Amino acid sequence: MFFRSRYGAVSLKRSRVELTPDFNFCYILFREMLFLSWGRPSPQEQKACIDKSGGVFNYDSKYRGATAKSASSLKDDQELSKDGFALNHARFLVGSGLDTYEKGKTALKTWRHFGLDWAFVDPKTPIQNGAKFCVCVKEFLPWVMMPLQVVYVNESKRAKKTAASFGFGSGTLQGHLLAGEERFSIELDENNQVWYEILSLSKPAHFLSFIGYPYAQLRQKYFAHQSVNAVKKHLSAS
What mean pLDDT is predicted for residues 158-187? Predict the structure, then answer.
């Protein structure tokens, strides 16, 4: 079933259709929500999207926190691929030294890695377990709002010659085009080099992402390169 409203958000519960004045557009395709906005989504629209998601994860609880593991261990996890998840991993050298590492931490905590013309997160969103937020992405004409929740925050302090790292993982909520989890992290290794890493596992969660998943995967890779450039820009400016 396909339904479109010009008057607000639409929620389909069995045979009932509800309208709320939260969004410019909300599509229901095969009983799945898709949150759209013709303009850059406002904080009010993002909050309404999060509220509409019900705070319900759209992926299996056994994978909650999975991205806290190393990329190599996830690549060897046969159950992940059996359940339809694809792994996306990118790791970039962004500098060296403790000062660069601390600036990198600040970049993640203030969402500078999402400081793009076509993708953003409200920079006031706290990096803490349980915090809900929207990733807003411009796709062709409309913006797409996708709700997530921070599922863990990990930090290890440097001691002598051991590495230091800071990172957090977020899980997708109902209404997100994909199902899965993504981690962003910054690391100061034993050689004093600073690395920015993105690790995600995902699979389609909406009819549109099923038919357009190759495109979605390309966008993930494109985002990774855009994101590291945003981090480097922050490091060089601060």
Answer: 93
Distance (Å, rounded) from C-alpha 110 to C-alpha 189?
22
- The residue with tokens 């013709």 is 38
Q: How far apart are CA 210 and CA 191, in angstroms?
A: 42
Q: How far apart are CA 133 and CA 126, in angstroms?
A: 9
Rounded Cα distance between 119 and 43, Å, is 14
Cβ-based neighbours of 177, under 8 Å, separated by 6 or more: 34, 144, 146, 204, 205, 206, 208, 209, 216
DSSP 6: S
Cβ atoms of 127 and 133 closer than 8 Å: no
Amino acid at 97: G
Query: CA torsion sign, 127 to 129 to 131 to 135?
Result: positive
What does the pLDDT look like over 95-118, one tens digit per residue? 999 999 999 999 999 999 999 999
Alpha helices in the chain (DSSP H): 43-53, 71-75, 78-82, 98-109, 207-211, 213-237
**CATH: 3.30.1490.20, 3.20.20.70, 3.30.160.270, 3.30.530.20. Which one for 61-237?**
3.30.530.20
- The pTM for the full model equals 0.87
Residue 96's pLDDT is 97
Q: What region, left, alpha or beta, does residue 22 occupy, with left being phi > 0 and alpha being psi -120 to 50 degrees?
A: alpha
CB 126 within 8 A of CB 142: no
